[in-house]
Design a protein that fits this description.
alpha/beta; Rossmann fold; six-stranded mixed β-sheet; 34% helix
């Protein structure tokens, strides 16, 4: 059995229209969300054997703030292929991982992370959490999937169980969507 965490970067700043997408930092709400989720991930109790992440600024800042809030430094393996990758590309990247890792945390972007959940978790009505993701997988959300495999190379569509899903607004309603 393998465990896969999918952690979407926190809310980014769109204030500078000239900034490259890759270089967008977090906004204030994103920094608050990253800190809140860092503490939550620490308290959730999974010790991630391996962390792989997009090197985009919003991901690096999310990890930095979350790990500081958790009081734990995190060794990250930066992989540019995660930046704006499709679910298929993310699955291929996971299949390359060393089998000694039992629990991997991937930090990245939508729609790739969301699509990966849709690819791995069956759409057969057995997962109410998948239905929540179908509505939206917001920034700074964490999904935890259980995979009935011994080798990452055996990762296959429709074989995962979405065991846990938490969004910043579940922990602090002020971090939810802004209503007009």
């Amino acid at each position: 059995m393998k465990t896969l965490g999918l952690f979407r970067h926190a809310k980014s700043d769109w204030q500078d229209p000239r900034a490259r997408d890759f270089d967008r930092p977090l906004n204030d709400r994103g920094r608050r969300g990253a800190a809140l989720m860092g503490r939550y991930i620490r308290d959730f109790g999974i010790n991630w054997d391996h962390v792989i992440a997009s090197p985009a600024v919003r991901c690096t800042e999310t990890i930095e703030i979350a790990s500081e809030a958790a009081g734990r430094p995190i060794a990250v393996n930066w992989d540019r292929r995660i930046y704006l990758a499709s679910g298929v590309t993310l699955a291929d990247l996971l299949r390359e991982q060393n089998d000694r890792f039992q629990a991997i945390l991937m930090v990245g972007h939508n729609p790739g992370l969301e699509d990966l959940i849709f690819d791995l978790v069956p759409d057969d009505g057995s997962s109410p959490l998948r239905d929540v993701v179908e509505v939206k997988f917001p920034t700074a959300s964490l999904a935890v999937l259980e995979l009935p495999i011994e080798r990452w190379a055996d990762l296959a569509d429709n074989h995962a169980r979405l065991a846990h899903l938490i969004r910043p607004r579940d922990l602090d309603p002020a971090l939810g969507p802004e209503l007009a």
